[in-house]
Structure to design on (390 residues):
């Protein structure tokens, strides 16, 4: 039986060769698939999933050991897979029928299918239960019509976890169903949204009578809300956990705060390491990294981890701005270094929105952890059809 230390050595040696292996592969989605396939081949994917669905059948402690060993080594391509691995597959593992688990977990674990999350809509972000995309049963299919927005990775996705309204006569939290949608079909139209960073990392997704087999449903018809919340908890855990932030590769994807080590190097390069204001802020970033690392090792509420990550992202980006001066504000296309720093300054605000805004995390902690009174005016018993909407 492999010890924890031997296992972690194996994880580290897998990742050390990985960057080289991915070099020759064209396109981020192909690289992500190849990376995940190699992880599967190495027996390092789906550690705590049962063998019957392609997992390794190991004790859940190995997941933590894996995370700790791989944290600083993950390639940027890993970020494209987190919606599938951390969110969709976890939810399918908990709520999916035996058939759905067999259909989606093995291919998801192996990176053969990339997932996106079709939750947010133009009129339903923080108020997610106000969504209006409809799914109507037609024989042995669901017909889905509506618009989703801010959908990360949709341009590469093969499958989506979708929330749709299946009964507008029921109160808004009770008429929602969670379904799996095949993104490769005529009724699905993905349009990129360009952000102020210049990148287009998320999309609008238009659904025009898209079709779903009737049994590609998670949980009960009209019973999707608790599952939606469970998936969001997985998302917050994924966003908040293990962001020990000393990983440049992860920071480059914009999915993690700028790391302390990189900021020190930057201050040194700019001959600003002796500046007392910069030293003070470096100390704050270092303390934040340590707090996140210690927090990740404890069983904190997912919203706490998510909030910490946002605070750290903003603090680190502000420091990059301070060190970089004008090069963190204005850059040219041929200056990769300045582009990298400027990207973070512009991108970090998005961290406080994706996965639920800071205010919503605080509401969640207030209501569900501290037991404060719920927000007034939620109309929890009024049929959705009769509610005033955006
Ligand atoms: C980088 C990124 C990636 C994303 N990826 C995805 C994705 O893959 N799939 C997906 O479905 N969505 C995705 N989103 C969307 C994200 O979930 C929403 O942006 C978020 O839930 C907020 O919704 P909204 O943008 O409609 O803002 P709104 O809900 O309109 O909020 C506007 C402001 O009002 C505040 N507010 C709203 N309600 C309350 C309240 N009750 N109490 C206090 N303050 C309140 C908010 O905090 C915010 O500051 C992504 C967003 C970002 C930035």
């Amino acid at each position: 039986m492999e010890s924890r230390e031997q296992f972690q050595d194996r994880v580290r040696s897998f990742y050390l060769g990985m960057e080289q292996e991915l070099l020759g592969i064209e396109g981020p989605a192909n690289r992500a698939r190849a990376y995940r396939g190699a992880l599967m081949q190495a027996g390092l994917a789906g550690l705590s999933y049962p063998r019957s669905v392609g997992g390794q059948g190991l004790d859940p402690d190995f997941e933590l050991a894996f995370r700790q060993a791989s944290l600083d080594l993950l390639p940027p391509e890993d970020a494209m897979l987190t919606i599938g691995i951390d969110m969709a597959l976890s939810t399918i593992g908990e709520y999916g029928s035996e058939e759905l688990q067999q259909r989606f977990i093995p291919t998801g674990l192996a990176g053969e299918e990339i997932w996106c999350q079709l939750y947010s809509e133009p009129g339903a972000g923080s108020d997610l239960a106000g969504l209006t995309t409809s799914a109507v049963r037609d024989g042995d299919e669901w017909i889905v019509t509506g618009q989703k927005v801010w959908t990360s990775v949709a341009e590469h996705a093969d499958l989506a976890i979708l929330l749709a309204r299946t009964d507008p006569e029921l109160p808004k939290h009770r008429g929602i169903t969670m379904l799996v949608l095949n993104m490769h079909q005529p009724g699905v139209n993905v349009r990129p949204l360009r952000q102020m960073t210049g990148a287009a990392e998320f999309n609008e997704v238009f659904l025009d009578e898209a079709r779903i087999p009737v049994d590609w449903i998670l949980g009960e018809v009209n019973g999707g809300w608790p599952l939606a919340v469970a998936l969001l908890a997985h998302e917050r855990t994924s966003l908040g956990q293990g962001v020990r932030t000393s990983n440049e590769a992860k920071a480059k994807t914009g999915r993690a705060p700028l790391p302390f080590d990189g900021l020190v190097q930057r201050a040194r390069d700019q001959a600003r390491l002796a500046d007392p204001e910069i030293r003070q802020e470096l100390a704050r970033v270092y303390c934040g990294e340590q707090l996140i690392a210690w927090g990740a090792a404890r069983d904190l509420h997912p919203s706490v981890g998510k909030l910490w990550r946002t605070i750290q992202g903003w603090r680190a980006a502000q420091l990059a701005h301070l060190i970089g001066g004008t090069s963190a504000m204005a850059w040219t296309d041929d200056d990769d270094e300045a582009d990298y720093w400027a990207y973070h300054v512009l991108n970090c605000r998005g961290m406080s929105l994706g996965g639920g805004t800071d205010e919503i995390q605080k509401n969640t902690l207030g209501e569900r952890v501290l037991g404060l009174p719920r927000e007034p005016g939620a109309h929890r018993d009024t049929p959705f059809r009769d509610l005033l909407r955006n």
